[in-house]
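Subject: for your reference before the review

Hello V.,

The reviewers asked for a structural picture of the protein, and I figured it would be easier to keep everything in one thread rather than splitting it across files. Below is the amino acid sequence we used in the manuscript, unchanged from the supplementary table.
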Amino acid sequence: MRRATRMVVASVMIAVAGAASAHAESMEDMRRTLAEGEQRFEQGLLVAEKDREASHAHFRAAATAWASLREGGLHNAKLEYNTANAWMLAGDYGRAIASYRRALALEPGNAVVREGLEAARQRAGVVAPAGGVRTIAHRAVDLARRAQGVAPPGVWIGTAGVLWVVGWAALGARVVWRTRGLGRMALGSWALAGLVIGAPVSDALDQRASTLAVVVARDVVARTGPSEGVYEAAFKEPLRAGLEVRIRERRGAWARVALPENKEAWVRLEQVEVI
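And here is what came back from the structure prediction:
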């Protein structure tokens, strides 16, 4: 707990100030909610060593207050990071993972957020989603995805375009001067262009095919179909809170989710939180 209480609450007042389209009354409401969350967070830190249950209640209240801002339309990486830290200290690792994932989606290159996400996964006893066999190509795409956080998407698209043009120029020079090195340069430029543009395109297609979510309820009994009374449990062991899944289908109050090891099952929508 001592290590956890050293987590610092990042300021998100700039996010509120940036909501220029909001009315003055709404802005004031957001400021009050932020202040309420910070107050409850500080109270949680003060009583953490003496009364664990009370501190958890304060942290839950802080996280709930900040989460309400997101539900109200305020999307900001610092706000999600604050919310994740509060859920983490409250012992709700599933919701902490969901908030860290949202923060990372807004700032993919933020190493501090990534560190918090890994810590939450360790506490929850879950591992990061795997994508099968990790080849050199897979690792290269992963590296490209991390690099996306360094510059806006337009920069990477422009870079890919430049590399594509350089490749064709090198190929043209290869035909004229018959130099093998220029041919390799063309292939290398095209490969880099594909890598730069391939990561965001792959992510976009994956997002259209499914929705990222995190199991937030404890000991979720996954089913073979969308009903508790008709379908049996899909697995012997329940799903842990914090498990990251993809929603493939929604049917009423149920969702068919993709799980690690190419498994699928049905859970209630209220048992997961969409990222």
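For the response letter, the relevant points are probably these. Residues 210-274 form a domain with the SH3 type barrels. fold (CATH 2.30.30.40). Residues 1-8, 132-139, 205-209 have pLDDT under 50 and may be disordered.

Happy to draft the paragraph if you're swamped.

O.
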